[in-house]
Amino acid sequence: MFELKIKSRLKDTRARTGVIKTPHGDIKTPAFTVVGTQANVKAMTINQVKSVNTQAVLANAYHLYLRPGHKLIEKAGGLGKFMGWSGPTLTDSGGFQVLSLGSGFKKVLAMQSGKLDDVDVIAPAKTRHAFVDDDGVTFKSHLDGSSHRFTPEHSIQVQHAIGADIIFAFDELTSLHDGYAYQVEALNRTEKWAERCVDEIKKLRAKNPERPYQALFGVIQGAQYEDLRKKAAKDLGAMDFDGYGIGGALEKDKIGEIIGWVNDILPEDKPKHLLGISEPDDIFEAIEQGIDTFDCVSPTRVGRNGSVYTYGGRVNITAKKFERDFTPIIEGCECYTCQNHSRAYLRHLFKSKEILAATLASIHNEYFIIKLVDDIRASIEDGSFKKLKKAWLKNYYS
Question: Which of 92, 165, 242, 282 does the annotation list as catalytic?
Answer without folding.
Answer: 92
